[in-house]
Amino acid sequence: MTVVFDTIFAAGQWVQTERAGGKTIGLVPTMGFLHEGHLSLVRRARQRCDRVAVSIFVNPMQFVPGEDFEQYPRAFDRDLSLLEREGVHAVFHPDVKEMYPLQPVTSICIGKLGELLCGGSRPSHFRGIATVVAKLFHILQPDRAFFGQKDAQQAIIVQKMVWDLHFPVKIEICPTVREADGLAMSSRNVYLSPHDRAEATILYRSLQHAENLIRSGISNASRIEQEMQEMIRAVAAAELDYARVVDPESLEGMRQIDGNVLVAVAVRFGKTRLIDNMMITAEKRERK
Ligand code: PAF
């Protein structure tokens, strides 16, 4: 049976009971409108932990002014039945007043990591994410928390926050789940018109192109970035935000590829901004 909590108090009581019974807790934090990507995190959490909690909360603090906070797709009843089917034990579904009863004066400052890549066009986004994730960790006290590789920058920032602030939680990063044509699953894909949906495969195609170049021995990062940018700019509906080859720890750009790299793209289709990435390991390159 899946229990639903909309208060921090009720969630805390559940946590206490489970902990007293010696159960480990896995947390999958989400903003709802669930898809197979989220469900893959839930399945991993079910394998790794005795109890699985999923939070569904569209966090206003991670939307910058003018973004789609109000329009962000919400479908709680549908989400709940998907989670019941997956055997999720608890769903935490607070409203904004419950999570932010007062204007917060404290937040998690991320520094440079939050300014690079997506932080360039979404300045306070990662501060909002780190702050809400820290709150969720305090409320649900998970042993493990599960994030998708699709949001690579978010995953890296959460991992660093956990190390820096000694949260007693293990972060697990799970592979990106893709549609048959390669488009990474995202709740925002529903915004795309059929035409833009077809064109949106450019994100994955540009990543595959970068991977092929790297595997073929090209190590000049700016040449790879340029080729990706040209591919994306050739798609009429696509507006490039970035296509970068970066260090997977620092997210800083590089001249020569040496070791593991993260290739990351962000592209707008009208008002819809999509992201995707690929981690390319040194071994993968050497094999070629
Ligand atoms: O990835 C998301 O859905 C959100 O950024 C998260 C981690 C649930 C925080 O609001």
Shape: globular
The amount of beta strand, in percent, is 15-25%
Order of helices and strands: EHEHEHEHHEHEHHHEEEH
CATH architecture of the largest domain: 3-Layer(aba) Sandwich
Radius of gyration: 19 Å
Helix run count: 10
Helix/strand-derived category reads: alpha/beta
As for the CATH topology of the largest domain, it is Rossmann fold
Extended strand count: 9
- Helix percent reads 25-40%
Give unreliable regions as ranges: none
Q: What is the CATH homology-level superfamily of the largest domain?
A: HUPs
| Mean pLDDT across all amino acids | 96
What is the distance, rounded to the nearest whole angstrom, between the alpha carbons of the first and last residues?
49 Å
Count structural domains. 2
Listed once per kind, the bound small molecules are: pantoate
Task: Describe it.
- By secondary structure, the protein is of the alpha/beta class.
- Helices cover about 40% and strands about 20% of the residues.
- It has helices at about 10-20, 35-50, 75-85, 95-100, 125-140, 150-165, 195-200, 200-215, 220-235, 280-285; strands at about 5, 25-30, 50-55, 90, 145-150, 170-175, 240-245, 260-270, 270-280.
- The strands form 2 sheets. It has a 6-stranded parallel sheet with strand order 1-4-3-2-5-6, sandwiched between helices. Strands 7-8-9 form a 3-stranded antiparallel sheet.
- β2 (about 25-30), α2 and β3 (about 50-55) form a beta-alpha-beta unit.
- α5 (about 125-140) crosses α6 (about 150-165) and α8 packs antiparallel against α9.
- Pantoate binds near residues 59, 132 and 133.
